[in-house]
Amino acid sequence: MTPDNKTKRVVIKIGSSSLTSSHGEISRRKLERLVDEVAQLKDQGYEVLLVSSGAVAAGYRKLGCLNRPTSLPEKQAAASIGQGLLMEAYSELLLSNGYVASQILITREDFSDENRYNNARNTANVLLERGIVPIVNENDTVTVNRLKFGDNDTLSAKVAGLVDADMLLILSDIDGLYDADPRKDPDATLLRKVEEITPEIEAAAGDPGSSVGTGGMKSKIDAVKIAMASGIPAFLGKAGVPNILLQAVEKEATGTYFESKDTAGNLNHKKQWIAFNSGPEGEVVLAEGADVSMLGKKRLLPSSICKVKGYFQEGSVVRILDFEGNRIGLGVVNYSSEQLREYDQTQDKFTEEVVKNDDLVCHLESSIPVGI
């Protein structure tokens, strides 16, 4: 089925466990099957971007390790070998189907800097519009834990927002979200459609998953929350099921579909960057009695702030806290921390709001906590 009206843009996340053999190495058979299905989507007129794990799995044997490494230096060394091998395999297989692959390696810093974020967006858009299949991965060779996205589930959701995807497909070794852990509860039921991520759903997400990947169900739920807040429908299903990709985009696959019923809370592109990628540099505390419920509906004025924490410049993103210290939002400030601290003495110098409504994101605007 060809996409209606316009070419549909799909971001597909494939996890390490869905690409590896029982010995933890890249499975050529699994990779071929995945690429064949990507080609089917392309043949139907879809634009496809892959967020692919597997670099460490592809490279650790050639590093001389008998088992998947656990230390950070060995993981990064294995990734530096494996990333090239993985891309070579993807390129070869896609070319055999008539399509060209490209590689995009990014770090969290590329997303936290707005100019670099927009550059990445522009590059990805050119590639997709010209029929290329971008293959995205975190640059594991140089990133450290405090600068990592955390896992490719989260990365895929942020990339889906980056390119304004029409759908995010997360393929894993499980066939969807259950109301309980199916490994422990034989009566666990597969949830076919989810319109809101409730505390009960988060509790059912459980612990991290397989030994060859970094994300479990919790990371997938976090990714889905980002996608839903960005107005992007998501699907979670099992890799390796025949025709899973085509079935998923046609809403016919076995798995879990996530789509918010409240589209009024969807974040625009600027607010997505503020909420998920910006990296706040300080904090402002609202005065006691400030109407927190109105925060997402009006600008933030200097008279509403009672305390400033940290040091930041004009144009920085800061956390917004209520009087009790609870995090309630993020915003781009029009004044530095020094200027805000001098507000009582220089009220006449404040000619504009501290944060404009267009530069403000709060919990009340979406179903997800800001700053994931």
UniProtKB/TrEMBL annotation:
What Pfam families does this protein map onto? AA_kinase, PUA
Keywords, ordered alphabetically: Amino-acid biosynthesis, ATP-binding, Cytoplasm, Kinase, Nucleotide-binding, Proline biosynthesis, Transferase
**Location(s), subcellular:** Cytoplasm
Q: Which GO terms describe its biological process?
A: L-proline biosynthetic process
Reactions it catalyzes: L-glutamate + ATP = L-glutamyl 5-phosphate + ADP
PUA domain residues: 282-356
Q: Where does substrate bind?
A: 53, 140, 152
Coarse class of the primary localization is cytoplasm
Q: Which CDD domains match?
A: AAK_G5K_ProB, PUA_G5K
Gene3D superfamilies xrefs: Acetylglutamate kinase-like, PUA domain
GO-annotated cellular components:
cytosol
Q: Mind telling me which SMART domains this protein's record contains?
A: PUA
- Describe which pathway this protein belongs to, using the record's wording: Amino-acid biosynthesis; L-proline biosynthesis; L-glutamate 5-semialdehyde from L-glutamate: step 1/2
* PROSITE patterns recorded: PUA
Q: What is its EC number?
A: 2.7.2.11
MF GO annotations: ATP binding; glutamate 5-kinase activity; RNA binding
Which class of enzymes does this protein belong to?
transferase
Entry's InterPro entries? AceGlu_kinase-like_sf (IPR036393), Asp/Glu/Uridylate_kinase (IPR001048), G5K_ProB (IPR041739), Glu/AcGlu_kinase (IPR001057), Glu_5kinase (IPR011529), Glu_5kinase/COase_Synthase (IPR005715), PUA (IPR002478), PUA-like_sf (IPR015947)
Q: Where does ATP bind?
A: 13, 172-173, 214-220
Summary of the function given for this chain in its UniProt record = Catalyzes the transfer of a phosphate group to glutamate to form L-glutamate 5-phosphate.
Give the family from UniProt: Belongs to the glutamate 5-kinase family.
Its recorded name reads Glutamate 5-kinase
